[in-house]
Amino acid sequence: MPRKVLVTTGATYPFDALIELIFTQRVLKKLSALAVTDLRIQYGSTPTSHIAYENCVENCYAVLQSTGINVTGFGITENMASEIRSSWLVMSHAGTGTILDTLRSPSPKPRLIVVPNPVLMHGHQAEVAAALEDMNCLLYSKSATEESIVSALDKLDRQFTELPQKHSLADLVNYEAGVFGNCDISEKHVI
Amino acid sequence: MDITAITIKDALDFLSEWRCPLVLLLLAGITAVLTVLGILAVLVTALVKSYALPPKKHRHGASAMFVLGSGGHTTELLGIVSQLDFALYPIRTYVSFSGDMLSTVRALQLEKEMSSRSSSSASPPPSSSGRRQGKVQTLELPRARNVGQSYFTSIFTSAVCGFECIFAVVKVQPDIVVCNGPGSCVLICFAALLLRATRIKLTRLVYIESFARVNSLSLTGRILISIVDRFIVQWPSLAERYKDRGVEYFGILA
């Protein structure tokens, strides 16, 4: 059975460091040991990221040949949901959108490793990933380094917790707006 | 000695002197200031009192205004909007800000999905009597500050944005405003406070802090926390930290 790994850098900020990390001997060997057959790279819309991706593939040609991992890449896509659904593992930047899309995708859910973009580290972006790791929903690689990523890949066999169901705010909004479902129905019966 | 007589005589003398116009001007000025302060006091009292009132019942459906931030904010808010029964909100207004074309498109996409969903599930025919006339509209308001704009010119663009927000809110007169940031929704909320203070409409304000906020409130959140009727966060750590400010937590909403 094919085993696909999706690497996503997000659409807003370039994250070439993540692509370069994936295309290191150590990480590729590790992925190969995990029986990964396909590597799908979303490298972002900036031309430099495209070049970075092409260079990585070229430099790792020998390793990729020996491990037999099939690499494909794309800038951005509207069909991220289906890309995620068909993956066995998603390695993502710390964007809330991708994190939620992955954790809310239908079963069997892909595993998720989040690697924060060092450029955005001063912000609050990685807080969600860290909090969700505390809930055992995903693996959070605290730094964008080989060691950190390999140690996250070592922990993939654990049982992850499902993200809790999303709570509906409909009752609260209805109360504040002064409208009620049943009151409306009785009104319709009168008419 | 008649004190009154002397005072009146003195006053008349005084008025006939050259300083008279100045004094009159001063008196007029004081009166004007007092009037303005009085009106302000009345408005502020009315506004403060409005927070103690329960939401007004709208048996014929409510008018709702959804303020779409952009990107992730829009995703989160439309997720909440999609949980609502649109039959209860015959008037729906989606506000977005210039330069963010996608939010309007996505709002209209949701409207389309919702209408196909309700028509497939054998809903009762829309009743004409009593019910408010249904209306869905999208508004695009100018931004308070464009990316990279200088702070000096942003004073003027903010003013334009502020007036547009007031104009939009006064025109739509929503029963409820639901927003989740960023920045520009603050102006909509302030405009809604004008409606409340003048009792034109007791618009209720609901703010939902982003899922991305785990440990600290956003700047928008810190401004709106003392203004809105309901302030909802999505992480227990935030709820714990701001529990004295009436923050509510139900779980993840995204």
How would you summarize the topology of this molecule?
The complex is a heterodimer of chains A (191) and B (254).
Chain A: E1 4-8, H1 16-22, H2 25-33, E2 38-42, H3 47-59, H4 61-67, E3 70-74, H5 80-85, E4 89-92, H6 96-103, E5 111-114, H7 125-134, E6 139-140, H8 146-154, H9 170-177, H10 181-190
Parallel strand pairs in A: 1-2, 1-4, 2-3, 4-5, 5-6
Helix pairs in contact in A: 2-8
Chain B: H1 3-16, H2 20-50, E1 63-67, H3 71-81, E2 91-97, H4 101-120, E3 135-141, H5 151-172, E4 176-179, H6 185-197, E5 204-208, H7 219-224, E6 230-233, H8 236-241, E7 247-249
Helix pairs in contact in B: 2-6, 5-6
Protein architecture, described:
The complex is a heterodimer of chains A (191) and B (254). With 191 residues, chain A is an alpha/beta fold. Helix content of chain A is 46%, strand content 13%. Chain A is built from ten helices and six strands. Chain B has 254 residues and is α/β, with parallel strands linked by helices. Chain B has two domains: 3-50; 63-249, Rossmann fold (3-Layer(aba) Sandwich), CATH 3.40.50. Chain B has eight helices and seven strands. Chain B has helices at residues 3-16, 20-50, 71-81, 101-120, 151-172, 185-197, 219-224, 236-241; strands spanning 63-67, 91-97, 135-141, 176-179, 204-208, 230-233, 247-249. A seven-stranded parallel β-sheet of chain B has the order 3-2-1-4-5-6-7, sandwiched between helices. Chain B is elongated and about 85 Å long. The A-B interface holds A 96-97, 100, 124-125, 127-128, 130-131, 163-170, 172-181, 183-184, 187-188, 191 and B 55-62, 64, 71-72, 75, 79-80, 83-85, 87-89, 124, 127, 129-130, 175-176, 178, 204, 206, 208, 210-216, 229-230, 232, 235, 237, 250-254.
Task: Name some characteristics of this structure.
heterodimer, A: alpha/beta, Rossmann fold, six-stranded parallel beta sheet, 10 helices, 6 strands, B: 254 residues, alpha/beta, 2 domains, seven-stranded parallel beta sheet, 8 helices, elongated
